[in-house]
Design a protein that fits this description.
Shape: globular
Helix content: 55-70%
Strand order of the largest sheet: 2-1-5
Largest sheet: 3 strands, antiparallel
Strand content: under 5%
Number of helices: 24
């Protein structure tokens, strides 16, 4: 009798846990909790917590033919579910399923005791069921053309909420906080000095005291200038002559640093609408409009990666329609080439000014100061943006689309040093940290060539022309050969295969020898304008009109040909290779004419629009905006619990919101990091011509 009883119990237990024996790789605790959950769900009167867990599971929706294949479910509902007994709570996991060539995800809610391996095995054994229907039903093959009923493998990844902290993240958090604390400390320090000056001032003399804690610090700045004259031979301008004591040197350095980081010193430098007389004021408008164009492209592209429920509709409507140029920054980010043009123009202008102040001698000291100035211009804010991304992504409570933020965080954890060395356009490009900063590596590498070109300019104008022709031809040839060799897409890599898209970025898009043309256009244009700055190059309005016609025609041709060149054929197209080699340089040449015409006084309405005062302030924070805006877009997309539906209205509102937050964040980064570092450079090196800059 006892044996029969035990046998009956075992049979009953096997019937209840029909998955126990085949699922030998599932942990015991997970098996027990999953059985309790499924039993409570499939009972005659399902318990509320079990219904909530099942309700949070991703269900098949509509609009599948337009790309709505991912079923995210409800992340927050799953995590908020607790079993009354307290044995477990809901845990959100995503099953990545490859079925009939379709790759999609299904969100499931399982007991918190289950590991990712447990969930993977349970999905493969089809254990998760409600009323004899699988949590993963119906299969996607039922709604796809020419598909079989066979199912591929599935792999589970479970959400952890916040990413784990380690030493690298802790260092980035510390540096991020330090960047916030220093300006506040400097502002309080300067304010306290101003109050101290008020209390020490004698009212009997009837003259107002110099208050350093107020704006615009005129008296103190004059006093500091006179002190600098007396301290000309003091090292780094940080210690007082005749005071070799370490304590006084330390206090002098601390005083200098705190003043450089104070808002009283940096706010007036940012909040201005005046452009220096020697700078082309139209560059401000070109710079800001190019930045907005790039931000529009990133808003569209980064949202389409993993966050759209109708991504196929987006590809059909946007990628093949010239009317949507704004959402792709032209034939794949021509706005970046505009920045390279501006960078080349300012690079030559800056070094030529340094050359003049050094008695027309381009010495090794001048070149080293030029390189150091560029590094100080780029790297402090660049590396702070890396720390900021790591800090934000480590603290954010991510939802069901955490993959992209985790990808960026892991990349920065592993290859941050490539950003320090400005080699992230050659090393670990596929898994780069802050992938959009490949531009800075290219820009600095371009600047390394500027002194050599200007040395040739000082020796022989004919050799300079020959050198320019060789450099242009070499860049065109390499680009064309790479396009043919790898079968690279031309107008938009988003339409190509995954392998072709990867090669596009690895072999062409991020490489300086393929992107050198626009920088050279700006550099040679600046040299030409510097040589003839006292002469009116354009003699008649007919010449100006002809130049405008050519410029606008080139812009139109570059854009139009992107939609007519065939880069989809099996054999590489000569037309596609030629277009790939020339179109970015031609675009830069067309924009260069706009700069030249505006500087020569033939800009007309275009010059008035581009030289508007409002652009000056935005141009001053544009570098910070460029660095931070992808971080904000990824942050927003990663915090979503549902996919975004693409419409023109939704994208416009997303773009508007990203612009507003980007300008606010860019203003903060410029005020907290960029301007203080520039002030520190002046404190260390003394006054010098403005270093080269793109933004």
């Amino acid at each position: 009798m006892m044996v029969l009883t035990v046998l009956f119990c075992l049979l009953s237990f096997q019937f209840q846990l029909h998955f126990v024996f085949p699922a030998r790789n599932i942990s015991l605790k997970c098996m027990q909790d999953t059985d309790e959950f499924l039993s409570d769900l499939n009972s005659v009167e399902p318990k509320e917590y079990a219904l909530r867990m099942y309700d949070s599971v991703g269900k098949l929706g509509s609009n599948i033919l337009h790309g709505n294949v991912d079923r995210l479910g409800s992340y927050s509902e799953c995590l908020s579910t607790h079993i009354p007994s307290g044995n477990f709570q809901g845990q959100y996991c995503k099953l990545h399923i490859l079925q009939d060539g379709a790759d999609y995800s299904v969100g499931v809610c399982v007991p918190s005791s289950c590991a990712e391996e447990d969930v993977t095995v349970m999905s493969q054994l089809d254990i998760l069921r409600f009323r004899d229907a699988s949590f993963l039903a119906p299969p996607l093959s039922l709604l796809t053309m020419n598909s079989s009923s066979s199912s591929g493998g599935s792999v589970a990844t479970c959400a952890t909420g916040k990413f784990h902290l380690d030493t690298f993240v802790a260092v980035c958090l510390f540096l991020t906080l330090l960047g916030l604390v220093l300006p506040l400390a400097g502002t309080l320090y300067v304010t306290a000095r101003g109050w101290g000056s008020d209390h020490r001032a004698s009212p009997a003399h009837g003259t107002p005291s110099a208050i350093y804690g107020s704006l615009p610090l005129r008296e103190l700045e004059r006093s500091e200038q006179s002190h600098r004259i007396r301290r000309t031979h003091c090292p780094a301008h940080l210690s007082l002559c005749g005071t070799p004591g370490r304590g006084k040197r330390f206090l002098g350095a601390t005083d200098c640093v705190l003043k450089c980081f104070s808002w009283q010193k940096n706010v007036p430098a940012i909040w201005t609408t005046k452009t220096p007389g020697s700078t082309c004021s139209a560059l401000n408008g070109i710079r800001v409009l190019s930045l907005l164009w790039i931000m529009s492209g990133h808003t569209s592209q980064m949202t389409a990666w993993l966050s759209l429920d109708n991504v196929l509709e987006w590809k059909t409507r946007v990628l093949k329609n010239p009317l949507y140029l704004y959402s792709r920054s032209g034939p794949f980010y021509l706005g970046v080439d505009t920045f390279f043009l501006i960078s080349g123009w300012l690079s030559a202008r800056s070094l030529l000014k340094m050359h003049q102040t050094a008695e027309n001698r381009l010495t090794a000291k001048v070149i080293l100061r030029y390189y150091f100035s560029r590094l100080i211009r780029l790297q402090p804010l660049h590396m702070y943006s890396v720390c900021l991304l790591v800090a934000l992504f480590s603290l954010a409570p991510w939802g069901p689309v955490w993959e992209v933020p985790k990808f960026h965080l892991d990349n920065c954890r592993q290859v941050w040093w490539t950003n320090v060395l400005l080699l992230n356009n050659f090393l670990s490009v596929r898994n780069s940290c802050n992938g959009w900063t490949w531009y800075l590596a290219n820009d600095f590498q371009f600047h390394l060539t500027t002194p050599a070109i200007l040395l040739v300019h000082g020796k022989s104008k004919h050799v300079l022309v020959l050198l320019g022709a060789v450099l242009f031809l070499a860049s065109f040839t390499v680009t064309a050969l790479l396009t043919v060799a790898h079968g690279l897409p031309v107008p938009d890599p988003s339409e190509a295969s995954e392998n072709a898209t990867a090669l596009y970025f690895l072999e062409y898009y991020t490489k300086p020898y393929c992107r050198f043309g626009p920088f050279l256009v700006g550099l040679f244009l600046s040299i030409f304008m510097h040589q003839n700055h006292q002469a009116n190059i354009l003699k008649t309005k007919a010449q100006a009109l002809l130049g405008w016609i050519c410029s606008l025609s080139i812009m139109f041709a570059v854009v139009a040909l992107a939609y007519t060149v065939d880069d989809t054929s099996v054999t590489p197209s000569a037309a596609a290779a030629l277009y790939q080699a020339l179109h970015r340089t031609l675009w830069a040449a067309a924009v260069g004419w706009v700069v030249f015409a505006c500087q020569e006084g033939y800009g007309g309405l275009v010059n008035r629009l581009l030289s508007c005062g409002m652009w000056t302030f935005l141009a001053g924070i544009s570098y910070a905006c460029y660095l931070v805006h992808p971080t904000l877009i990824i942050l927003y997309n990663g915090l979503q619990e549902t996919l975004i539906h693409y419409t023109d209205t939704n994208m416009f509102y997303l773009f508007s919101g990203h612009c507003l937050l980007t300008f606010i964040a860019g203003l903060g980064l410029t005020l907290f990091i960029e301007k203080p570092c520039q002030e520190l450079k002046r404190c260390l090196l003394g006054s010098m011509p403005a270093g080269p800059g793109t933004f």
